Structures are given as structure tokens and as C-alpha cells.
């Protein structure tokens, strides 16, 4: 009976990055993912790397380390992540004050350039000038998240890491010590478990009595096939309603609602925007809901219609492109910081989730975590340690 040093639960970019880095440190690692091609947050991510978005010494450091990592990641992993410096336009709604919105961005490490409506439309001709009062322009990295995840997975396997496509049913413990997991197929044994299951992490941990302030949104978007129409930059709103939604939904008074089987915590929001990938396909969205049931049904037709109306207002040429509605879970914490570290109730269980900027923060944090797991003192992991 083989016992691994680490079982990593979840095959999105948090799981593959962590599995790769743990393997680099010489650990035996088994990565478990429930399906071959999951409809995950990694799969339907815009691929953006907002390295301008740090607001504290900790997040500034993560932004700097994250973009430095991505600039060299294709070479390190021997797989093309499609990294590029794409830039982003943050659109200011026609009813908002551009000066006030720009002032609110002084908290970030990199200051934006405020563009007039004409300047914004020159930068991105597909914008509807009547929909905006201007825009903020910032440097922004971009990757293909699917290709990046695949590159991590293949590099992990080259180092001897193992992958099983099996759904984890439960985490196993013996008294106050984790011993492994039970999947739909069999039991796997390990000295340590790393939960990287995104929006499913909360329920998985709750089953063995661990309460974490980790939540999730149901994120919805439209994905198109490759098209000839060209979007020059990544488009997002300057006022991102999703962040306000996450802050409201993670208030302590709502924790009881999250534990109810079918509850909408706060009303849904819609942040219209889009990005085009190197092959020409687009992701357009996004609508976010806080539903306590990770498997709650969503009216796909109604959601798609709502998304297309919002895109039609902001980027009219994109609104009627052929495309398919998709849905995934996006994990978030109660304070916009990743939940990374050891869980204190049961020995041998660790959490690696809740990233506000998952694609940017996961690669450097996986490096820090793996070195810390190998006995190295690490001030960054110490800053992110949490108690429950």
C-alpha cells in the first residue's frame, strides 16, 4: 500500500502549480481531479494578470513575483502559456465621474492613465462611446489558462507526479490526524492533504468538521469560437461589482446562510467585459451569483440573454457573435487574501484556495508553500497563516 507525501485535491491551476512545486522539492505527490476536463474557474478564466493591483506590501509583493514568474513560465515548464503584455481598459460608466473613479485607483501600486471617451475608443474601436464617460488604462499581463494549466500538469508528471481522474468523496482521518482520502474508486493514503478544490473546498472540509471562511460565486460567461473580429485589449469595468458582492456575501452574519442547502446570499451582479485569446476566441461576461448550493440549477437562457444585453450596450459588435453560455464556481475569502496554510483542527490538512487574482498569485505562492513544506522558514506563508 503506497503512502504519498502529499495528496493534492483539485486539478485547476492552484492544484497543478502546487503539485509541480511540491514535486520539485522532492515530495511524492498524487493529484486528484474529479473529471478529465472540468468546467472550472481555470477553464473559464479571462486569463488576466493584473500585476498593477497590489494595495499593501503583501499584495504588492505577490503582484511583482507573479508577473516575474509568468514572464519565464513557458520556458520553465517547457510549454507555451501564451503569455503576453496585453494591457487593460477599465471602462467608466457614462453616469460616473471619471475623476472620482481615477482617484479611487490611487490605492494601487501602479497608477492608471485616465483616458477620455475619444481616447478610449481610439484604443478600442469596438467600444460604444455613449456607454462610457472615459476609461482607465493599465499594464496587464495575459495568458491562456488552459494551456498554462496543461503545461503545469505535464511538467508535474515529468517530475514523477501522479494524476488520477477520480472524485474525492471524503477526507479520511484517524483521531486528529489526516490519513488520506476516499474517492469514488478507492482509498489513497498520504502524510499530508492539500485542498485546492476551489468552490467545492468549503463543503469538503465541512464534512470532517472544519469550518473555513471560504465562499464561492457561480460565475457565468459566454465563450465564442474563434472569430475574425479583433478586440485590441482586455475590457473590464473600472467599478468591479464582483468585489463588492464578495465583501457583502462574506460578512460574518451571512455564514449561517452559506450552510443552508439552497440559499441566495445576496442579489447577483453583472460586470460586462471581454477578452480575446490568441486563437481569436472570446470570453464575454460576467454574471456572478452567491448561491449556497454549488450544484444549484441556473437558467442558462435567461442568463445568456442578460449577458448579451450588457455586452450590446458596451461592445455592440460582439453582442450577437455565436457563442455558448458556461458556468463555473469561483472561490473567494472574506478579506481578498488567499487562504493558504495549515488548518489547525486536524494535523496534515492544508488549504490553498480563495485567491482574488488566482492566475497571478498561485504560481509564486505555490513556490513559497512548497519550500515552506520542506522546512524552510517563509515570512510570506507566515503572513497568510490563519486560524479557524
Structure, described:
- The protein has 388 residues and is of the alpha/beta class.
- It has 2 domains: 3-70 and 144-213 and 335-384, 3-Layer(bba) Sandwich (FAD/NAD(P)-binding domain); 123-132 and 215-333, D-Amino Acid Oxidase, Chain A, domain 2.
- The protein has 11 helices and 19 strands.
- The strands form 4 sheets. Strands 1, 2, 9, 10, 11, 12, 18 and 19 form an 8-stranded mixed sheet that branches.
- The model has no long low-confidence stretch (mean pLDDT 94).
Query: What is the H-and-E element order?
Result: EHEEHEEHEHEEHEEEEHEEHHEEHEEEHH
User: CATH class of the largest domain, please?
Assistant: Alpha Beta
Largest sheet: 8 strands, mixed
Cα-atom radius of gyration: 21 Å
CATH topology call of the largest domain: FAD/NAD(P)-binding domain
Supply the number of helical segments.
11
Number of strands: 19
Relative helix content: 25-40%
Name given to the CATH architecture of the largest domain: 3-Layer(bba) Sandwich
**Residue-averaged pLDDT, rounded?**
94
CATH level-four homologous superfamily name of the largest domain: FAD/NAD(P)-binding domain
Task: Name the features.
FAD/NAD(P)-binding domain; oxidoreductase; FAD-binding oxidoreductase; alpha/beta; 11 helices; 8-stranded mixed beta sheet; oxidoreductase activity; FAD/NAD-bd_sf; single chain; FAD-dep_OxRdtase; 2 domains; 388 residues; D-Amino Acid Oxidase, Chain A, domain 2
Amino acid at each position: 500500500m503506497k503512502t504519498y507525501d502529499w495528496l493534492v485535491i483539485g486539478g485547476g491551476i492552484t492544484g497543478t502549480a502546487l503539485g509541480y512545486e511540491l514535486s520539485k522539492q522532492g515530495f511524492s505527490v498524487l493529484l486528484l481531479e474529479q473529471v478529465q476536463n472540468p468546467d472550472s474557474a481555470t477553464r473559464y478564466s479571462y486569463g488576466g494578470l493584473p500585476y498593477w493591483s497590489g494595495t499593501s506590501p503583501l499584495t504588492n509583493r505577490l503582484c511583482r513575483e507573479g508577473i516575474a514568474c509568468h514572464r519565464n513560465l513557458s520556458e520553465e515548464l517547457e510549454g507555451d502559456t501564451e503569455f503576453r503584455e496585453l494591457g487593460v481598459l477599465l471602462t467608466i460608466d457614462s453616469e460616473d465621474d471619471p475623476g472620482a473613479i481615477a482617484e479611487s485607483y490611487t490605492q494601487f501600486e501602479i497608477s492608471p492613465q485616465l483616458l477620455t471617451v475619444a481616447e478610449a475608443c481610439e484604443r478600442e474601436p469596438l467600444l460604444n462611446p455613449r456607454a462610457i464617460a472615459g476609461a482607465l488604462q493599465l499594464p496587464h499581463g495575459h495568458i491562456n489558462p488552459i494551456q498554462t494549466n496543461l503545461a503545469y500538469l505535464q511538467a508535474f508528471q515529468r517530475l514523477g507526479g501522479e494524476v488520477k481522474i477520480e472524485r474525492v468523496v471524503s477526507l479520511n482521518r484517524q483521531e486528529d490526524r489526516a490519513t488520506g482520502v476516499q474517492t469514488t474508486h478507492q482509498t489513497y493514503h498520504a502524510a499530508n492533504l492539500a485542498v485546492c478544490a476551489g468552490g467545492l473546498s468549503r463543503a469538503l472540509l465541512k464534512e470532517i468538521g472544519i469550518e473555513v471562511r471560504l465562499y464561492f460565486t457561480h460565475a457565468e460567461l459566454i465563450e465564442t469560437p474563434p472569430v475574425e473580429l479583433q478586440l485590441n485589449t482586455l475590457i473590464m469595468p473600472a467599478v468591479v461589482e464582483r468585489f463588492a458582492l464578495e465583501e457583502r456575501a462574506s460578512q460574518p452574519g451571512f455564514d449561517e446562510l452559506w450552510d443552508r442547502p439552497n440559499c441566495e446570499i445576496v442579489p447577483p451582479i453583472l460586470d460586462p467585459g471581454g477578452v480575446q485569446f490568441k486563437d481569436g476566441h472570446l470570453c464575454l461576461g460576467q454574471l456572478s451569483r452567491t448561491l449556497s448550493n454549488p450544484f444549484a440549477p441556473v437558467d442558462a437562457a435567461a442568463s445568456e440573454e442578460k449577458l448579451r444585453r450588457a455586452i450590446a450596450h458596451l461592445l455592440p459588435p460582439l453582442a450577437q457573435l455565436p457563442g455558448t453560455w458556461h458556468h463555473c464556481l469561483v472561490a473567494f475569502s472574506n478579506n481578498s487574501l488567499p487562504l493558504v496554510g495549515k488548518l489547525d483542527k486536524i494535523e496534515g490538512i492544508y488549504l490553498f484556495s480563495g485567491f482574488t487574482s488566482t492566475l497571478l498569485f498561485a504560481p509564486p505562492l505555490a513556490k513559497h508553500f512548497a519550500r515552506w513544506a520542506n522546512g524552510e522558514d517563509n515570512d510570506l506563508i507566515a503572513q497568510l497563516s490563519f486560524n479557524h
